[in-house]
Amino acid sequence: MIDLKFREGIARATDPIGRGLVRAGLTANRLTVLGVLVGVVAAWQVTEGHLLTGGLIAAAACLTDLFDGPAAKAAGTVSKRGNYLDSIADRVSESIMYAGTVVYCMNFRTARLAYVVLLSYIAAQIISYTRAKADALGVDGKVGFMERAERQLTMGIAAVVPHAFAPAFVFLAVASSLTALQRMVVVWQRLSRAEGLQRAGRWRSHESRPRAARGRRRLVRR
Questions:
Q1: By the 8 A CB rule, do 199 and 141 touch?
Q2: What is the value of pTM for the model shown?
Q3: Measured distance CA(85)–CA(30) in Å, rounded
Q4: Distance of CA 201 to the CA centre of its chain
Q5: Which of 49-63, 67-81, 125-139 has the lowest mean pLDDT?
Q6: Which of 67, 154, 174, 177 is the 20 to 30 Å CA partner of 144?
């Protein structure tokens, strides 16, 4: 939702920064890898109980993820390989942050809260995979509220706002689960509709062949 509503405004703000980063020698792929490394440091801080510090470092990791696309566009290096690397880095970074948060809950909170975080992670993976599989099958899989940007924002609030950790992750678990369910249902319906149109097209094609053959026979008889 954030991506759809604010994409143009974000691009106007990040494109000049992307050009500056390229002039400084930071390519898109370097920014992507740097984001993963910074995310590892953030997760480590969270496991040590430094929730606020980890949240601030994670925000820096999000900035590298925000600027790698504009950097690629500024350098003219937009490619399928870069897209692939960015997607893999997103999954790795998110998984590391969830893992660090689970360890934090086990050490400094409660096991019950760790299960809530784990549920949030499972739902997040289903959300991402459902869209990727839908795109591979030729239908639009981008539907639902709790996408990656919203999940990052919620986790950031949980880390930096006092007493917000438990409520934020309960909300994240519920909202992510609902989004995963919504996305699976909508993609299933779109696939069913697409297959129905394909079957109808094949049926019309088969029906038209005998008619065309009969038409040719009439022309021959005449």
A1: no
A2: 0.83
A3: 11
A4: 33
A5: 67-81
A6: 67
Integer CA distances (angstroms), 68 to 30, 83, 119, in order: 8, 10, 29
What 3-state DSSP class applies to 146? Answer: coil
How far apart (Å, rounded) are the C-alpha atoms in residues 104 and 47? Answer: 5
Residue 44 in tokens? 């480590």
- For the chain, how many residues are written? 222
CA distance 68 to 48: 29
Which amino acid, residue 203? Answer: W
- Are residues 173 and 27 in contact, defined by beta-carbon separation less than 8 angstroms? no
CATH architecture for residues 2-221: Up-down Bundle (1.20)
Ordered by start, the domain boundaries in the chain are 2-221
Residue 11 has pLDDT above 80, yes or no: no
Q: Over 70: is that where the pLDDT of 3 sits?
A: no
CA distance to 33, 108, 118, 159, 199, per residue, from 97 (Å): 15, 16, 11, 11, 45
Is the confidence at residue 219, as pLDDT, over 70? no
* Nearest-angstrom CA–CA distance, 116 and 172: 9
How much is the pLDDT for 23?
Answer: 86
- Is 74:18 a contact under the CB 8 Å cutoff? yes
Closest CA relative to residue 47, chosen from 90, 89, 109: 109
Q: Each residue of 94-153: pLDDT tens digit?
A: 999 999 999 999 999 999 999 999 999 999 999 999 999 999 999 998 888 899 889 999
